[in-house]
Write a structure and sequence with these properties.
The complex is a heterodimer of chains A (about 240) and B (about 200). Chain A has eight helices and nine strands. Chain A is of the alpha+beta class and about 240 residues long. Chain A has two domains: about 5-205, NADH Oxidase, CATH 3.40.109; about 210-240, no CATH class. In chain A, the strands form two sheets. In chain A, strands 1, 2, 3, 4, 5, 6 and 9 form a seven-stranded antiparallel β-sheet that branches. In chain A, strands 7-8 form a two-stranded antiparallel ribbon. In chain A, β2 (about 50-65) and β3 (about 65-70) form a beta hairpin. The mean pLDDT of chain A is about 90. Chain B has helices spanning about 5-15, 20-40, 45-65, 90-100, 115-125, 140-150, 170-175, 185-195; strands at about 75-80, 105-110, 130-135, 160-165, 180. Chain B has two domains: about 5-65; about 75-195, Cobalamin-binding domain (Rossmann fold). Chain B starts with a helix and ends with a helix. Classes of the chains: A alpha+beta (about 240), B alpha/beta (about 200). The interface of A and B includes residues 110 and 222 of A.
């Protein structure tokens, strides 16, 4: 049961701005941009991020339309996995977190009547979770590749066909407590800036971009944090 | 938005002995313009909160001058919280802040709030407006149960209930039995103003 700490996270200003609801080509006020840069620096200085991930890769023993059975008698319910990963031989279950310190600082800012700092730092935390997700995907892709397999893009509990109640099962399958992640009675993760995901592994797996996930989301028409396909492609082009 | 310039203007007007309430009225009008630009997608959440902070600074500057002449009147009371089973707070916190800077007395019950706690606070405060926040789909049932608890306590005709959160729609509003939903913080403020007769 691997647990990995000290994962390097990349906090690019563009991604942080998108998580602040300021994506696209909008004009950003100097005061807000300066504050974001100041907060980004403070996140590093006072170590507000404590990224950690716990994951487990298990072989699939049986797959029906409504569930996937894994070695060790674990079962993940819902139609999303069979419909998304019909070719998978294994599933990687991963739970990651950036720890509780950042969200405590956000709450402190709100308590001190500094909500602008609070929401901007919260956005930085969300961008950090996005970066953590990417790192986990890279990790699992590398692991799969070392065995001649490919890894899919991730799916998350709460997506249609993968009920959020499956969180309980996922957190039992990995050493989530070792990285300080637990669930509330309704299945929400604590710390809040945490992520759970499932990745399909097999000889040939499909991948998709975050922009494609956003395009399928029910909130796509009014979500301020949406990754737009055109903007995503431009971003990818700039990265090359 | 020009924070330093705005604060300087307020300072100059106060020093010149201008009517403090008039200064606050002007600042509120500026906030309404910000709200409209937010509704038109010219401004975004950080802009909105930034302008709220400026308004709060202005209010803090003007308040001491008001003490002798008049008090800043609160336009209404609102009980608000994230419903039971949901621990999302950032959206609710933004609404709390925007209601506060727009002159409301806000009773923030926090997150994962049981229905009975809303009922108790409505009774204690006499607030005629209730805000139920929730991000997850599971919050809809909690919102419905909270509205029912308010009804069972005989308070439903005394309060207006608004709901808000990431995925709230007209259908969710009908399902929960709320009076209205706000797609963002400023709609919440507008509803509260309308219901309190301040809009």
């Amino acid at each position: 049961m691997p647990v990995i700490l000290d994962i390097p996270l990349s906090l690019k200003t563009g991604e942080v701005l998108r998580r602040e609801g300021l994506g696209g080509n909008f004009k950003i006020r100097p005061r807000i941009k300066n504050l974001i840069l100041e907060l980004l620096a403070s996140v590093k200085q006072v170590h507000l991020l404590e990224p950690a991930v716990a994951y487990e890769i298990q072989s699939i023993t049986e797959m029906s339309r409504e569930q996937v059975s894994l070695e060790g008698n674990s079962v993940v319910h819902g139609s999303l996995l069979p419909s998304t990963f019909p070719e998978a031989k294994e599933l990687a279950i991963a739970v990651g977190t950036i720890g509780p310190r950042l969200e405590k600082q956000v709450a402190e800012y709100f308590d001190r009547d500094e909500p602008l700092r609070g929401i901007l730092l919260d956005g930085i935390g969300s961008a950090a979770v996005d970066s953590l997700t990417q790192e986990v995907c890279r990790l699992i892709t590398a692991e799969a590749s070392s065995r001649g397999y490919q890894a899919s893009s991730p799916v998350n509990p709460g997506m249609p066909g993968l009920p959020i109640t499956e969180q309980w099962r996922l957190l039992e399958m990995v050493p989530a407590r070792e990285i300080g992640v637990s669930l509330t009675s309704s299945g929400e993760m604590i710390p809040r800036k945490s992520i759970s995901m499932i990745i399909g592994i097999g000889p040939k797996m499909k991948t998709w971009t975050r922009a494609e996930v956003c395009a399928r989301c029910s909130l796509k028409n009014n979500c301020p944090y949406r990754v737009k396909i055109k903007a995503y492609r431009q971003h990818q082009k700039q990265q090359k | 938005m020009k924070e330093k310039e705005a604060l300087k203007i307020v300072e100059d007007r106060l020093n010149a002995g201008k009517e403090p309430l008039k200064i606050l009225d002007d600042a509120q009008r500026a906030m309404e313009i910000v709200g409209q630009r937010f509704a038109d997608s010219q401004y975004f959440i950080p802009d909105l909160v930034y302008s709220g902070e400026i308004l709060k600074e202005i209010t803090d500057m003007v308040k001491p001058k008001l003490a002798k002449a008049a008090e800043v009147k609160r336009v209404g009371k609102v009980v608000i919280g994230t419903v039971a089973g949901d621990i999302h707070d950032i959206g609710k916190d933004i609404v709390v802040f925007m209601l506060d800077v727009n002159g409301f007395e806000v009773y923030d019950l926090g997150v994962d709030v049981p229905a009975q706690k809303f009922v108790d606070k409505i009774k204690e405060s006499g607030a005629p407006i209730v805000g139920l926040s929730g991000f997850l789909a599971l919050a809809y049932d909690s919102m419905k149960q909270t509205v029912e608890a308010i009804k069972d306590a005989g308070l439903r005709n005394k309060v207006k209930v608004m709901i808000g959160g990431g995925q709230i729609t007209e259908e969710v509003k009908k399902y929960t039995g709320a009076d209205a939903y706000g797609k963002d913080a400023m709609v919440g403020v507008s509803l509260a103003k309308k219901w309190s007769g301040a809009g």
